[in-house]
Amino acid sequence: MKKRNTLQKSIILDALKDFMGKHPTPNEVYEYVHEKHPSISRATVFRVLAGEVEDGEAQRVYAPDSSLRYEYGTRKHYHVSCRVCGKVEDVEMPYQYGLEEIAEGLNGFKVERHIVEFIGLCPDCVGNESENI
Amino acid sequence: MKKRNTLQKSIILDALKDFMGKHPTPNEVYEYVHEKHPSISRATVFRVLAGEVEDGEAQRVYAPDSSLRYEYGTRKHYHVSCRVCGKVEDVEMPYQYGLEEIAEGLNGFKVERHIVEFIGLCPDCVGNESENI
DNA sequence: ATTTATGCAAATCATTTGCACATAG
DNA sequence: CTATGTGCAAATGATTTGCATAAAT
């Protein structure tokens, strides 16, 4: 089961780098890649992105819109997302390792990492207080 | 647009109460409800659960498996989940309101709430160190 | 030569929606 | 009565999978 290097993999990894600071879905990566490389299939994009996470070259982003999202690299950080327009941004706040210790003490899990997702309204959507729940 | 009370709504809300401490998907709620009330449709379960969140009777749970999950009530708390078996548990730790202030200051969003998901291995799976990434 | 990776299309799976009928207020 | 809610089936959308072929080692 050793992995092979293919052109598709490097193209898709490069695409993810081009999205640096963003949190694209596999379909967004596909659209982007598709412009220059129309022969690369959607299925391959899904497969390669999942593989990059396994290989520690990318990480999943857990945005509350519950669809797959990825970003290049494995730096631990948090996200804010807008519940109206869905925009996701990085939050440059220190990773709270202390919380993991507390959780371990309480539930007996071996905690490896944690995710923090802030949810609210982005500056653009704060104005349009129409579509609110 | 005023809401009406229907038998379906109370049956589904009761079902969610029966899942207290759990974090069922709409389909799990549907299966459960379906046994005693086979005439209630899946679509209604989806609609009613979403409505209960609007009404502040239930809340969505954002587990990293990215599918809809709900739980009865609106108490703010965090979750741990096992990356091997998928088990989700509540973590009884104080809600970190302070983090929200920091995020607001950094990104300019109006932060309404946040989610913390701890990920690791549950006591059962810590032993079976075979299926690890 | 051997085995993993890709492309395509079909299959799945979760969730949503249109519409006619039922029913709560 | 009259608008909201429901059931059904079809529609959507995202992700996965089977399989034959291509490409990497």
Rg of chain A (CA only): 17 Å
Percent of residues of chain A in helical segments? Answer: 25-40%
Shape designation of chain A? flat
Class of the largest domain in chain A in CATH? Answer: Mainly Alpha
Q: What's the overall average pLDDT of chain A, rounded?
A: 90
Encode the helix/strand succession of chain A as letters. HHHEEEEHEH
Question: What class do helices, strands and sheet pairing of chain A give?
Answer: alpha+beta
Low-confidence stretches of chain A: none
Question: What's the tally of helices of chain A?
Answer: 5
CATH architecture designation of the largest domain in chain A:
Orthogonal Bundle
Oligomer: homodimer
* Structural domain count of chain A: 2
Topology:
The structure is a homodimer of 133-residue chains.
Chain A: H1 7-18, H2 26-36, H3 42-54, E1 58-60, E2 70-72, E3 78-82, E4 88-91, H4 97-107, E5 110-121, H5 123-127
Parallel strand pairs in A: 3-5
Antiparallel strand pairs in A: 1-2, 3-4
The structure holds a DNA duplex (25 and 25 nucleotides).
